[in-house]
Write a structure and sequence with these properties.
Layout lengths: L13 H8 L1 H12 L3 E6 L5 E6 L3 E9 L2 E6 L8 H16 L11 H19 L20 H7 L3 H14 L1 H15 L3 H14 L5 E3 L4 E3 L4 H12 L3 H21 L5 H17 L6 H14 L9 H5 L4 H16 L9 H21 L6 H12 L2 H10 L3 H15 L4 H17 L3 H14 L3 H14 L2 H14 L30 H10 L3 H18 L6 H8 L4 H16 L4 H20 L3 H14 L4 H10 L8
Antiparallel strand pairs: 1-2, 2-3, 3-4, 5-6
Length: 643
């Protein structure tokens, strides 16, 4: 019988869904619903919703409300609060708006069985990790829904009747028929046909790139579920070598496919999930331990799209020192014979060579040959500009003088081409001087960097170092004068810090004084509210005259809202209007975040009328912006079914 309980889903607003799922998951869930991915929606005995949702696989998804809080469960890898659950809720509310009847799920609904298995697996995993079974960690569906009628049906059949049933299913369903053929081949030890078929499936699945169209709510994600299932079956029947071979082909084809795909990473996730089977097969394959390690490294070196995340489980297993030592020797030979660039730009070639070298370093350390690491880093430093790696190794060995010499050498070699390396080496130099207690020289470098590119972060770093050196008052005085007037600190004879020994870090842009943005950040940090407002207003006037400049509007509003709420509200209104003017969904969501802040302030001040007047004005001004109006409806607590 249908549930007599009040339907609490009817009361949901977009704001409720946003708080439950977050902006990204809500957006993707709505896209799934618009693309008609929700199938066979039904109500459950507990008053919840259950449906199939088609994503990279077909997932069973259950959503319910408990004490007005949305809860969900899904057979997808995320299990809880996923885009599939959002899609189910939105689909249900859409049905209500259209006046469509949603049927009641039967007690023998197969989705309930699937969700029960996932819950039990999670409960068991928690127990395996040492968590106590308190009985409440994993929710169960209502007891009336947990009895699978299909199981009773099968148990009541004779052998002949079961065979007839299987034949009937196999004739109607190609996947069942193919699974049975796989099982028959595996039982005979004849796997060649199955492997050939899987290879063809990989070629078919990888033949078209994945894509998504947010505006139309459409997407295509290649389906590797059958490939994964069949690889799992091969592995379970002891054919690990074949699974590893298939993994190589999948990595090649998948890399090409992901390179052409534009679908928020969905295709990469499909392939990565499938490759995990090959990585599990690797350690039980007939390959020697050394060859297993080389296979894993080669896969990682070829991986440009994070498809091989599952290899972590292989490296977490224990490998002997002897195997690591053999691996180091093989990789060192590879490095010695490393081919020339072959058209690669210098950065790409250096990156690939450095990645190989990093594996060698790990192998040397794991095998107990740590004394070879620094000489290797020294040989590679000038070849690939990997000075930072060498310096870090020298710092770790507390060889301060050598580290500092290499820092200066590295800066000279890279300052024209790779400023990022120079910046990292300067940081290494500060680290060395801090470890040796030379805070005056640390502060000197911090000051040089701050005056070269003033920022609040640089100010705090300089303050910390100069305080440790005992010279902060004099340094701060010079800092304030520079930020307000542009007077150079280098010409002041009273400057308390020594020379850095480095080339000055001059500005890469023409500074404008006073540097109001940095001064505002400093005033916010010191909680000088009136000074924050004064600087903010002065900044607006100056930037309005110049027509450009950065802004600290968000930080200012947050800093003054407690004491000057009207000023904060005015700032948030301007920010919201600017975002609305960009006319795209992401900007509308950004505008909504500012409007929520305004709502919180006006609600606290009991100025609800002003809030509703603001919403009314925005609806009138932007009535043609359907997406924005949709977001506004969520802000004023309007129920989704009433839109």
């Amino acid at each position: 019988m249908p549930s007599k309980k009040k339907d609490l889903f009817v009361e949901l607003t977009w704001e409720d869904l946003l708080k439950w799922a977050g902006e990204k998951i809500l957006s993707r869930g709505r896209g799934y619903q618009r693309s008609r991915s929700v199938k066979e929606l039904a109500r459950t005995a507990d008053g919840g919703l259950i449906a199939w949702v088609r994503g990279s696989h077909r997932y069973a998804t259950h959503v319910w409300l408990e004490r007005r809080k949305i809860e969900s469960a899904c057979t997808c890898p995320y299990w809880d609060t996923c885009k599939h659950a959002v899609a189910v809720v939105v689909e249900y509310l859409d049905c209500l708006k259209k006046g469509e009847t949603v049927p009641q799920a039967g007690e023998d609904d197969p989705r309930i069985k699937l969700l029960g298995k996932v819950r039990e697996q999670i409960r068991q995993d928690n127990l395996d990790e040492g968590d106590e079974d308190d009985g409440g960690e994993v929710r169960a569906l209502p007891s009336s829904s947990r009895i699978p009628a299909w199981k009773s049906l099968l148990e009541s059949k004779s052998k002949e009747q079961l065979l007839d049933l299987v034949r009937e299913f196999a004739e109607k369903n190609p996947e069942i028929r193919e699974t049975l053929e796989d099982r028959a081949g595996l039982s005979r030890g004849a796997v060649g046909k199955m492997v050939k078929s899987i290879r063809q499936e990989i070629r078919n699945s990888s033949s078209e790139p994945g894509w998504s169209n947010y505006w139309k709510g459409e997407r295509y994600t290649p389906d590797y579920s059958r490939v994964k299932e069949r690889m799992e079956s091969l592995l379970a029947h002891g054919h690990a070598d074949k699974v590893v071979e298939l993994g190589e082909e999948l990595l090649r084809a998948g890399t090409s496919q992901v390179e052409m795909s534009h679908d928020e990473g969905e295709t990469a996730m499909e392939i990565s999930s499938c490759l995990e089977v090959a990585f599990r097969a690797l350690h039980v394959s007939s390959l020697t331990p050394l060859d297993q390690m080389l296979w894993a490294i080669d896969a990682a070196l070829k991986d440009e799209y994070s498809l091989c995340e599952g290899l972590r489980s292989f490296w977490e297993r224990r490998h002997s020192k002897a195997d690591w030592s053999q691996l180091a020797d093989v990789l060192l030979a590879r490095l010695k014979a490393y081919p020339p660039g072959n058209g690669e730009d210098g950065y790409s070639r250096n990156y690939r060579r450095d990645t190989l070298t990093n594996w060698i370093i790990q192998a040397l350390e794991e095998s107990g040959r740590k004394e070879e690491v620094i000489p290797l880093c020294e040989r590679e430093a000038e070849k690939t500009a990997s000075y930072e790696r060498l310096v870090k190794a020298l710092i770790k060995a507390r060889r301060w003088k050598e580290a500092e010499d290499w820092i200066h050498k590295g800066i000279r070699a890279t300052e024209k081409k790779w400023p990022g390396i120079v910046s990292n080496l300067r940081t290494n130099l500060k680290e060395i001087r801090a470890k040796t207690g030379d805070w005056h020289r640390v502060a000197a470098i911090e000051a040089d960097e701050f005056f070269g590119d003033p920022s609040f972060h640089g100010y705090k770093d300089l303050q910390k170092a100069a305080t440790r050196a005992g010279v902060w008052p004099a340094v701060k005085e010079a800092v304030m004068e520079y930020l307000e007037t542009g007077k150079s600190w280098r010409k002041d004879a009273s400057w308390p810090l020594p020379e850095t020994g480095l080339k000055p870090a001059g500005p890469h842009w023409q500074p404008q004084f006073p540097m109001t943005d940095v001064l505002i950040d400093m005033a916010i940090s010191e909680k000088k509210t009136e000074e924050v407002l004064r600087l903010h207003n002065a900044s607006k006037s100056a930037k309005g005259a110049r027509g450009f400049g950065h802004s600290r509007d968000e930080e200012v509003a947050k800093a003054v809202v407690a004491k000057y709420p009207d000023e904060a509200v005015a700032i948030w209104k301007q920010l919201a209007e600017k975002q609305i003017g960009l006319t795209n969904p992401n900007a509308y969501r950004a505008a909504a975040s500012y409007l929520r802040k305004i709502h919180d302030v006006l609600k606290r001040l009991h100025r609800d009328k002003e809030w509703h007047e603001l919403l009314g004005s925005l609806r009138s001004m932007h009535a043609r912006k359907r997406k924005f109006i949709e977001i506004l409806n969520g802000l004023d607590g309007k129920r989704i079914v009433d839109e």
